[in-house]
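Bumping my old thread because nobody answered last time. Still need a sequence for this structure:
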């Protein structure tokens, strides 16, 4: 089975101050549905070629267009799903005080192998501490981790577990 077309996946994501923008990626999953018309779980829709694209982070390359358009930076908290906005605590929502990034502090500190709470703590730390030197460090480490294919998936999950709004911060 092939992934299908169009080859680009686009989706609204929250940017700076939570303002929506359309993110672009290479498609890594099918759009298959069950007999009732419900989309199948990620594990069933992520095909070997899609896994390869994600493992090498090639699926993220179209986000460079988002950087050129000014919606994203090279470095910043990763843009998550729109429905998460209402689930954030005020502290977690601070991640939107800077532009989202193609890569970020949380990505080099564990990517999808860390909990949502850890990810948000790292994002807020970045918001409070970012500067050119830190961004350069993150970019260089991202290159290394992509080559090593490190921390790509969460345990027992094809992608990352959904954030349900655990408000522990």
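Sorry it took so long. Here it is:
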């Amino acid at each position: 089975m092939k992934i299908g077309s169009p080859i680009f996946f686009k989706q609204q994501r929250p940017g700076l101050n939570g303002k929506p923008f359309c993110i672009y990626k290479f498609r890594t999953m099918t759009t298959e549905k069950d007999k009732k018309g419900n989309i199948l779980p990620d594990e069933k829709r992520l095909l070997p070629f899609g896994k390869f694209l994600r493992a090498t982070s090639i699926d993220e390359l179209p986000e460079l267009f988002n950087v050129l358009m000014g919606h994203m930076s090279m470095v910043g908290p990763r843009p998550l799903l729109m429905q998460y906005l209402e689930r954030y605590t005020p502290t977690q929502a601070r991640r939107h005080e800077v532009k989202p990034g193609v890569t970020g502090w949380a990505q080099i500190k564990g990517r999808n192998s860390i909990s949502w709470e850890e990810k948000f703590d790292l994002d807020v730390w970045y918001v409070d501490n970012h500067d050119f030197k830190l961004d350069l460090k993150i970019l260089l480490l991202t290159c290394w981790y992509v080559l090593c294919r490190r921390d790509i998936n969460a345990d027992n999950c094809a992608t990352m577990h959904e954030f349900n709004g655990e408000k522990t911060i």
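The mean pLDDT is 88. Let me know if any region looks off to you.
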